Each structure stands twice: as C-alpha cells, then as structure tokens.
Amino acid sequence: MPDRIAKDGITLNDCVHITTMKKFLQMLFNKKPAADASIHPTPKRTPYELIGGEAPTRLLANRFYDIMASDPHAAELYAIHPLPLDVIREKFYEFLSGWLGGPQLFEEKYGHPRLRMRHMPFPVTPQLRDQWMYCMNKALDEVVHDALLRAGLKEALGQLASHMINRER
Ligand code: HEM
Questions:
Q1: Which residues does ligand 1 sit against, CB inside 6 Å?
Q2: By C-alpha distance, which of 104, 94, 115 is closest to 163?
Q3: Is 3 a domain residue?
Q4: Is residue 110 part of a domain?
Q5: CA atoms of 125 and 123, how far apart (whole Å)
Q6: Residue numbers of the domain that contains 56
Q7: What is the pTM of this model?
Q8: How many domains, in total, are found in the chain?
Q9: What is the C-alpha to C-alpha distance for residues 166 and 136, in angstroms, rounded to an integer?
Q10: pLDDT tens-digit readout, 9-39
C-alpha cells in the first residue's frame, strides 16, 4: 500500500518518478510548475492542508518549543531564547501557517517575515542550527505521520535553518 498523504492527495506511488528531493520540494511547495505534468502532477493541496490544517500546525510549533525547553541536547538554543516562550510559540505558529501555504497570519500582523534579518540580534551558529533542527526533526516525527511529507518538510526547514546562520562560532 502506498504511504497515503491525504485522501485524493499525492502518494508515494504518484511520486515514484521523482528522482530528487529538490523536485519533490518544488512540487510540494508549488513554486514551479512540474516540467512534465504527466509524471509530476502538481498537487492541488498546500502543505498546510496536507499536514491537517490549524491544529497540527499549532501542535508542531508547540512541540518544537516543548522539546527545546526540556531536552539537554538543545540547552544552548534554549539559553538564547527570551522567556517566557508564550509569545514565540504563537509567532512561530503564525509563521508556519503562512510558510506552509495556509493563512498568512504572521505577515498580516508583523509584515514580511524577513527571517534572516529578524535573527540578526541572535548569534545563530552552525551548532545552534543543528540544535534547532534536532528539535524540529523530533517535533516533525511526532506530528507528521506521512513519511514523504515529513521528509520533504525536514529538507525544506533544514535549508531555511542553514540560511539563518550569521556567525561561524
Ligand atoms: C537556525 C537556528 C535558529 C535559531 C538559533 C533561532 C533563534 C531564534 C530566537 C532566539 C528568536 C527570538 C525569540 C523571541 O524573541 O522570543 C527567534 C525568533 C523567530 N524564529 Fe528563529 N531561530 C532559528 C531558526 C529559525 C527557523 C528555521 C525559523 C523558521 C522556520 C525560525 C522562525 C522564527 C520566527 C518566526 C521568529 C519570530 C521572529 C520575530 O520575533 O519577529 N527560526 N529565533
């Protein structure tokens, strides 16, 4: 049985011809029309819909910060975050909502994300990037049940997290 993402959504079988993760991500995020629509059908659903909408998106943001605040592997990452985490939990949910193709909640409230610029006051080193991904990968393992969607989100968020690095050490 194919690993079904959603009823009428894309399945592993649909994606059998997709040879690279890059192509998968382009398809998932609909950034480029598929080169060959017969073998790469562009999904009609956004990643926000595929993940299950508001509740799982909120859960992903909250689990990310729960893990960050409790797992010793993320101690340095936790240490640079202003407390309490309530505000950032909400902001991160709002960001993810828009980033996944759902309601653009962050942009409506705060304007264009300009994520790299917003991180400049914080020393984002490769070590902190790895801790961030450690927490995010764990949260994705808990919240996103479909293996293909989960792998695509890990890859896309990994690229975004690397882009945040603004100091070498
Ligand atoms: C790569 C390592 C990263 C580090 C060390 C880091 C750290 C931080 C810190 C310290 C804050 C401020 C929290 C606060 O003001 O309460 C922040 C804010 C934020 N981060 Fe990150 N972050 C990283 C990656 C990311 C990534 C990949 C995303 C998106 C997927 C993201 C999304 C956000 C958002 C939306 C905010 C709120 C910005 C605002 O206050 O306007 N961060 N981050």
A1: 77, 80-82, 87-88, 91-92, 95, 110, 115, 118-119, 122, 124, 128-129, 132, 157, 160-161, 164
A2: 115
A3: no
A4: yes
A5: 6
A6: 46-163
A7: 0.85
A8: 1
A9: 19
A10: 444 444 433 445 566 677 666 655 555 444 4
